[in-house]
TrEMBL record:
Keyword DNA-binding among record annotations: no
Binding positions ([2Fe-2S] cluster): 231, 236, 239, 247
Manner of cofactor binding, per the entry note: Binds 1 [2Fe-2S] cluster per subunit.
GO aspect biological process, one term: pyrimidine nucleotide biosynthetic process
MF terms (GO), sorted A to Z: 2 iron, 2 sulfur cluster binding; flavin adenine dinucleotide binding; metal ion binding; oxidoreductase activity
SUPFAM superfamilies registered for this protein in UniProt: Ferredoxin reductase-like, C-terminal NADP-linked domain, Riboflavin synthase domain-like
Protein name (database record): FAD-binding FR-type domain-containing protein
Entry keywords, A to Z: 2Fe-2S, Iron, Iron-sulfur, Metal-binding
Location of the FAD-binding FR-type domain: 5-96
Cofactor: [2Fe-2S] cluster
Length: 263
């Protein structure tokens, strides 16, 4: 029987600077996850951190990482050719089969764009899979913008609205993503749509509330709680919220349950 806690060494193929504090690491591996799943990335004698897959293909995975602590700081010292240790994939991903043929509304805050990036790329590569995509992405400021080239290319494929919390630059709005939920044409979708929210807990909490104000039923909203992961296999209890183990039952949750889990 395979040891679900045993990491495997994987070579770093490429490192791309996304923003002031975020880098994307392309890692060589034959593991092929589902959209929205996460891995535990580790370094011997340092520790491990849960990171969502931001994209994947044949023989590789992308992890977009923000330097926020001991483990990620050490990962940022690595170079192409060095090794990272991975275990996973873990968790339930986005219910992409349920999204087929629907109008998709995807709202992200900051690096919350990373857990939906592979799904967005799937939608661009399979343009008939969903009816449409309305994409709202918010960042704190220009220095925090990630995936700049893809954000621009998505303007051609999706209905996009990009915003910065406290800056105004050309082609971008100023304000929080919650301020722009009302611009989504939910009434035109009938009952044929789904909403995905990913970002910091306050962003997800208040965006979920705002969606409700605009008539979106709870069962049409999906959230990801990847930030709460620790052991990833339900043993340590760090991700437990009441009776829910986020690593086993999530990290993707329907809002009917997720609204009681948001901090």
């Amino acid at each position: 029987m395979a040891n679900i806690m045993q990491p495997q060494a994987c070579k770093i193929m490429d490192i791309k600077k996304e923003s002031q504090h975020e880098y994307t690491f392309k890692v060589k591996t034959d593991i092929r996850p589902k959209h929205g799943q996460f891995f535990q990335l580790s370094l011997p004698k340092i520790g491990e951190a849960p990171i969502s897959v931001s994209s994947f293909g044949d023989g590789w995975l992308d992890f977009t990482i923000r330097s926020v602590g001991k483990v990620t700081d050490e990962i940022f010292e690595k170079q192409p050719g060095d090794e990272l240790f991975l275990r996973g994939a873990y968790g339930n991903g986005w219910p992409i089969d349920q999204f087929k043929g629907k109008h998709m509304v995807i709202i992200t805050g900051g690096t919350g764009l990373a857990p939906v990036r592979s799904m967005l790329r799937f939608f661009t590569e399979n343009p008939d899979y969903v009816e449409s995509v309305n994409l709202i992405c918010g960042f704190k400021n220009e220095a925090g913008i990630v995936f700049r080239q893809e954000l621009e290319s998505w303007r051609q494929s999706f209905s996009t609205l990009y915003t910065l919390d406290n800056e105004k630059i050309e082609g971008w709005h100023k304000g929080f993503v919650t301020e722009f939920v009302s611009q989504v044409p939910f009434s035109e979708f009938g009952d044929n749509y789904e909403v995905v929210l990913v970002g910091p807990p306050p962003m997800m909490k208040f965006t979920g509330i705002e969606c409700g104000k605009n008539g979106v039923p709870d069962e049409k909203i999906w959230l990801s709680f990847e930030r709460r992961m620790s052991c990833a296999v339900g043993k340590c209890g760090h991700c437990r919220i009441d009776e829910v183990y986020v690593c086993l039952d999530g990290p993707v949750f329907n809002y009917t349950q997720a609204k009681y889990l948001v901090d």
